[in-house]
């Protein structure tokens, strides 16, 4: 297929990177009071793994993602991407946020081109922008402005904007959280096929246990704030996975138990 | 329009029944145009019917011109369907033509014919026409001088205001030093500087340029600053994870995001700079429309004053229209989202 061939052309050298989170603790200052959000978190992610981070809302998962992205620095502990310490943001680790945060003054094409433009390599790599738009199925919307897009389309553009940089680690901060359930299921399948095709390491923050189980190799369950790793569950099931799979249903029951919801559902 | 085509279809089916609706539609579509034509014929007649109470040379030509306008209004609206967008535009503006014709008739009668309004303070329309034809060179010189002064001062002020606003919005250190100065000097009306400016600057022209720039600078600075300061951090986060350097964050994130605010500042700056321009020209500069107004008043040439005032208002509203056109072009992406 043409799309697959184009996808290959983007892929070239990019494969997943390993990610090591070692004894990371973090806290915020709120009106002079210390609010701990991460407590001695250690996670080691293999290259190409799809890891879901699951926890109660407000527990500090998103903070951990910001640290991995290099947007904030941890109070203590270290984060490494393939042995290199993470000190600042780098396009090899791209974040897709819960809101698409497309730049409203740029057309879809210009939004997707953002990373290449920021790195000063757009001129030689324009075809990657077209390929990324093809990949998410929005080639015909290249000249549209963000306010003309639906929520799902905007999030697809945000995904294309991330993928065009050939990330080694794709960081997803509840990217499907605000979509309607139908779009959500479609995009979950798209995410899996993109990840399988390109082999980047994926870190997905979600509070939906089912989503985590359908998508990830590994589900890490966090405690309430300050976040601690409560469980590290391997999901050994081939893709595409089915929501009704009794094995996944069993895992789901376990996970919801860990989140303190045994009797209520 | 759909009603029109519907009864058109009926007409071909049953010609006997359709006469009345067709006539009604015709009256509705062209009636106002005919009324406009009547109003302008009235104006023309009011010019030619009675003798002028004073000595004005353009009364006859003005009457003829009014008849021409009346003819254009009549044929333009009746035949609008054959004139494309010009015809549609004319039909849309026909009510204004009616009002204008009636107003001019009243003005003509109240001044030139029966002098209900005292002369020379209320000159008739033909004396203003006379200014435009007989005093044109001087008026054009004044327009040119005003535009030059305004444009220079405004561009300097807008540029400085924009750069200052971006720097304060972006850098805490710049904000620390500039913000108090802005708080202290900004709210002062630029005209308060007039006496100082006129004796410190080498020429009245440079003094006025300074004052116009000052008047423009303050609103542009404040709004650019607030625009840059209110850019959501999420945009910066996205750009940073994609490998953006600080220069990219300023030029490609902060500035485009702040642009809607910047245009509000440019609009406000334009308004306050007009005020300074006119005052500066009235007091110090020996050219321009402000000076022309002052000069006309000195000679009790009231028709010249009204003529200059009309030109001035056309220039000011033209400048604002131009600014809005530029804004609409630069901010196409806003279409359907924000409007102010």
UniProtKB/TrEMBL annotation, chain A:
PANTHER family tied to this protein: ALIPHATIC SULFONATES IMPORT ATP-BINDING PROTEIN SSUB (PTHR42788:SF17), TAURINE IMPORT ATP-BINDING PROTEIN-RELATED (PTHR42788)
Name of the protein in question: ABC transporter ATP-binding protein
Keywords associated with the record: ATP-binding, Cell membrane, Membrane, Nucleotide-binding, Translocase, Transport
Protein family according to the UniProt entry: Belongs to the ABC transporter superfamily.
Domain ABC transporter: 19-249
Function: Involved in beta-(1-->2)glucan export. Transmembrane domains (TMD) form a pore in the inner membrane and the ATP-binding domain (NBD) is responsible for energy generation.
InterPro entries recorded: AAA+_ATPase, ABC_transporter-like_ATP-bd, ABC_transporter-like_CS, ABC_transporter_ATP-bind, P-loop_NTPase
GO MF, one annotated term: ATP hydrolysis activity
Source domain of life: Bacteria
One Pfam family here: ABC_tran
Keyword Transmembrane helix: no
From TrEMBL, chain B:
Sequence ranges assigned to domain ABC transmembrane type-1 in this UniProt record: 143-324
Gene Ontology biological-process annotations: transmembrane transport
The keyword Secreted appears for this protein: no
Transmembrane regions: 62-84, 96-116, 151-170, 182-201, 207-236, 305-326
One term under GO cellular component: plasma membrane
Main location: membrane
Family matches, as SUPFAM superfamilies: MetI-like (SSF161098)
Keywords: Cell membrane, Membrane, Transmembrane, Transmembrane helix, Transport
Entry's localization field: Cell membrane
CDD domains: TM_PBP2
Membrane-topology annotation of the record: Multi-pass membrane protein
UniProt superkingdom: Bacteria
InterPro entries linked to this entry: MetI-like (IPR000515), MetI-like_sf (IPR035906)
Database matches in Pfam families: BPD_transp_1
Family: Belongs to the binding-protein-dependent transport system permease family.
UniProt name for this protein: ABC transporter permease subunit
Species the sequence originates in: Bradyrhizobium hipponense
Source species taxonomy: Bacteria, Pseudomonadati, Pseudomonadota, Alphaproteobacteria, Hyphomicrobiales
